[in-house]
Structure formats: structure tokens, C-alpha cells
Backbone:
């Protein structure tokens, strides 16, 4: 695991200073997201941080801060409540596996806690977007599947492949997130890579040329692709 980038630490300190300055009746002070025990930081580089979040039934998270834009991919749903900083807890809308959304925390940081009030594990991934990838223009047709989110920071697409089916992943860089377990082959001009991914498994790429993703397993697979602009 790489060490946290100095720019990330500086942003965290600035965010915490802001929350401290406004005061609160909440007894618990917020912590960085990576210090919340169930937010596992599994990957980090200069462009993204990838968190695997699993909340068992009855779990109440620590108050924690989001201050980077993020793409969230739901893996397994459960009933949850969210409590924003200095506000009462509210019931959150239900989710379905593969449901994905973008939250622009860079412009408006948030401190909150999440509670699993359901009977099953709540499982979601958070790909934080730290920095652009080269800033090259991305053609409108550069999509691996149906587009879920398309803004100045990311293009997020849904990929569902039957055995033997293929699609194109595009550069300059991106994160592939598995909603279901699967076996796939990623072919680039420089060679091939076999991906054996569990649910919430991921594969980072940093390659300008298009790549071919093929389902080489025996079952249908569901991925979400996050193309970083």
C-alpha cells in the first residue's frame, strides 16, 4: 500500500479545521475516512483511492469525512441510516446491486456516519477521484456499456457480459469494479492479463490505447467501469 499523498493529508487537515471551526453538539469528532474501521483502503495512487466498505447488521460507523469526489458502486444492499454532521439520522433510500452514483464532495465536503439497520451486510465501494489522467479529450463514443454518469471528472458505464462476450475499455486511465464474481481477460497492445475478481474486486488501468475485456468464465458477469477524465 502506498503512503497517503501529501496533498491528500493537506486537504484532510483543512477539512477537519473547517468542521472544528463551525462547532457542533455532536460528541464524536469526525475522523478521516481511512480511519473508519469498516472503510478499507485497498488501493491508492496519484489519481484514485479505492475503499471497500462492508457494514455488518447493527454496525454504526464512526463519524467520518468525505472531501474528495467519489464514485460509489453498490455491491450488496441493506437498510441503512445516515447522520450528517450535527443533524439527526435519516433513513436512506434502498439500493440495488450495481447501482452507481457520483458525489461531488470536493466542492462540498461532508462529515457523516452510516448505520446498518437491516438484516444483511451492506457492501459498497468508493472510488475517490484525486487527480485527472492527462486531461486528454475523450470521444463521446468511448464507453464500455450504457452510461450511468458522465461529467467533467468521470464517465461511468455498466458492463454486463455473457460468457465469451467482449467490450472495449478506454483510456487514459480507469478503475474496473466487479459487482459479481467473474473471470475475464484484458487484452492490451502490450499483452493480456487474466482477471479473477470477487464481488467488489477491482482492476486499475493506465493505458491510452483501448483494451478488450472478455468474459472467459462460465457465467454472466456484471462490472462497473469508471473512466477517469
Residues:
Amino acid at each position: 500500500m502506498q503512503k497517503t499523498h501529501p496533498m491528500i493529508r493537506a486537504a484532510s487537515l483543512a477539512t477537519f479545521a473547517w468542521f472544528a471551526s463551525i462547532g457542533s453538539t455532536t460528541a464524536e469528532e469526525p475522523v478521516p475516512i481511512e480511519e473508519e474501521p469498516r472503510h478499507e483502503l485497498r488501493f491508492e495512487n496519484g489519481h484514485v483511492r479505492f475503499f471497500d466498505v462492508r457494514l455488518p447488521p447493527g454496525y454504526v460507523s464512526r463519524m467520518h469525512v468525505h472531501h474528495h469526489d467519489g464514485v460509489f458502486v453498490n455491491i450488496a444492499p441493506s437498510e441503512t441510516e445516515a447522520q450528517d454532521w450535527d443533524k439527526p439520522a435519516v433513513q436512506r433510500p434502498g439500493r440495488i446491486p450495481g447501482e452507481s452514483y457520483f458525489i461531488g464532495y470536493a466542492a462540498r465536503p461532508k462529515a457523516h456516519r452510516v448505520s446498518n439497520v437491516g438484516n444483511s451486510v451492506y457492501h459498497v465501494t468508493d472510488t475517490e477521484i484525486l487527480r485527472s489522467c492527462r486531461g486528454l479529450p475523450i470521444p463521446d463514443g468511448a464507453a464500455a456499456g450504457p452510461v450511468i454518469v458522465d461529467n467533467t471528472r468521470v464517465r461511468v458505464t455498466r458492463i454486463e457480459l455473457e460468457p465469451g462476450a467482449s467490450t472495449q475499455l478506454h483510456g487514459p486511465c480507469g478503475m474496473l469494479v466487479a459487482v459479481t464474481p467473474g473471470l475475464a481477460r484484458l487484452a492490451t497492445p502490450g499483452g493480456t492479463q487474466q482477471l479473477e475478481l470477487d464481488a467488489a474486486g477491482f482492476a486499475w488501468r493506465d493505458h491510452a490505447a483501448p483494451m478488450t475485456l472478455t468474459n472467459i468464465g462460465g457465467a454472466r458477469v456484471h462490472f462497473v467501469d469508471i473512466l477517469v477524465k
